[in-house]
Amino acid sequence: MPLYKRKPISLAELPKTLEPTDLVYQIRFTKEIFHDYQDYVNRINLYRQRLWSCKVTGKSNLTYEEAMVSEKRATEKVQQLPQELMAPALHLIQFSMLPLKDLVDLIATKLQDCLHEGVQLDGKREDGVFPCRIMKVRDQCSKIQYEVSWLGKDNQPTGSALLNEDELIKKKPPVSKSMLKCFIRESTYRGAPWVLHSRLVEEHGISNNLPEELKGKFCFQNGVLVNSKKILNNAEEQKENMEDQESSRVYRRKMKVDRKKLEDSGKEMNDKEGDITAVEVIKYPIEDLLVKPEADDPILTIRPSPLRDFKVSADCIGDLLMVWDFCSSFSRLLHLLPFPLEDFENAICHKDSNLVLIVETHSTLLRLLIKDGGEYSSSLQKRRRKSKITLITWTEYLCDFLEMANNDKLYSHIATIKRGHYGLLDAHAKLEILRALVNNAVETNFVRELLDEYIEQWHELGSTRREEALQEARKRREEHLKAKIVSNGTSNEDGLIIGEKNQGILINNHGKQNGRVKLKKNKHSPKKSVSSHADATSKNNPMMQMQDAEARNGSTQHLLKKRSHQMMLKQGTDERELTLSTKEQRRQHYEREMEKRFIRTNPLGRDGNFNMYWWFRRDGRIFVESSDHKLWGYYHTKEEIDLLIGSLNCKGEREKALHGQLEKYYTRICGKILKKSKYMLGKIAVEEAVVRRSSRVRAPPRNNPANAFLRYVNRWKEE
């Protein structure tokens, strides 16, 4: 049984009131059954923690299921130990106080010297050393001899002889040390001292009597070896528990009497010793399959079923998307003008052998392989092919590639292609060929160098974004400090303190002294006389008149500065709005630049049923891949995207992550869908216009918008 923190844990018991018609929760690998869902969740979460260890091998940091698998494999490995070596090994293990490593070394050295029937080794003969196998061990007069049979080719016996021990050459240990470790752990139920299971003791006749040095320290209790000190401690604990139980019994009896008295007097007593049931709160998100609906859950929409109207079979859609995504993402490197996914799908299903879109796709991939100078290029040089691939010769280069690929499935299509009937191949075969070309193109130096360059540019863009974020944070701190200084108040050149509490107060030592003198002189006079006297003195004194004028001038200047400060604050808010808009523009710019440097397309995420959701940058649809990779579908309208987002339960881990990715790319996905819908509406309008024309002026079929893939021209073609 796996160990939890080095201790075994017993399995949960079956519910006592279990009926055949009851719905229960069962753990798959332990077969435990639960009535309550919360108990089931708690137990399975315990088993999923990496706190378990294998009892046989000692491996730690495992889940319960991994520990079970490890124990099973180790037990099967231990059973391969020869029966002749088992008894000597068990004798050495019983009551040994050695650590595991030292005990393994001791057993390995002892078994190295232990020769038994069936052991294959080398024996000395007059004409040399030859392989042999021990057939029988003879013990005659305290001298052990071994009857061996000489082995020839295919280990067939060629003769027999009787050899002494010194005439035998031992090859390697009969058992590895790792197997011995597993054997020791499997055979014992405790260590230091190591004690064997009673079954092995009886089966191999091993003594179960304690050695003299262990008799005072250990003893047997209920057939299990335990420490004597622990027995004494347990006895003391039991005694204390009995005393506690007795005191609690007396206390309960007293409480019962008191309760009865209170009931008789007409009072009610609240029982303070009631059971408190602790409700464990589940911390979301959790595993999606374990999410249980609750009353306070938000209302989820019904998930729409994806469309599956593909022209190719379901098992080809993955290859179709992979090839199209590679050609679209590395179009500049391939010198291939990008084309819509619908056109590529129509071209794959078309029966024309020299369709321009198909020819250019194959040709650009083959040119890349030739430029790389790899195996394909060297094979072409041996055949003395021209380096230019044309509309006539592209099939020859393709056949050379299929021969080089050394794939039976691809090789079977060469005859059809050489006859000029590439279009007669089914879509599955065409996509298999393109997939092989793309796989070889990815391994070329051109693609790898481009990817390395993109990765470096990604790092540079990330560093510039971090620097800008640091600069913006620094500016915000400086503005915050300036605002604090303005709110606390600062003195200006005109002697005014600009602040909330002391605006317009004159700082002039001479004026303060005069004011104090006047106040001292008129200390006991009423306020009116003081004010009138001050007015009179100000009229008579020209210095006072100048100070009053300066004060009035200063107050007007202060008001003007206050208004200018308010204007600056308003202007600052406008500038901040501008910086925010430019910040948003910069963020979009960085995202566009990072998209240009394509590395790989990752799925948006998975839903609760492990279905995978893909979104490609050049297509507006969201593709859905089933968990078994056999079915594909897609969503192509904004309403379907909204319903999909509304149907995701954020209590589950996978659906929460998928919800976040869909919210992140929602505006871009909807923008692509809107753009594509406008294009399709225009396309339908043109088609209807073509249908309404008379037969005399009807456009030829190649000008029909539905056959746009027939008019494809690679304007990026490398000359």
TrEMBL record:
Organism: Trapa incisa
Entry superkingdom: Eukaryota
Limits of the DDT domain: 314-375
The UniProt record lists the keyword Cell division: no
Cellular localisation: Nucleus
GO cellular component: chromatin; nucleus
Span list, region Disordered: 517-541
Record's protein name: DDT domain-containing protein
Keywords, in A-Z order: Nucleus
Biased composition (Basic residues): 517-527
Lineage, broadest ranks: Eukaryota, Viridiplantae, Streptophyta, Embryophyta, Tracheophyta
Annotated Pfam families: DDT, WAC_Acf1_DNA_bd, WSD
Every WAC domain range: 22-127
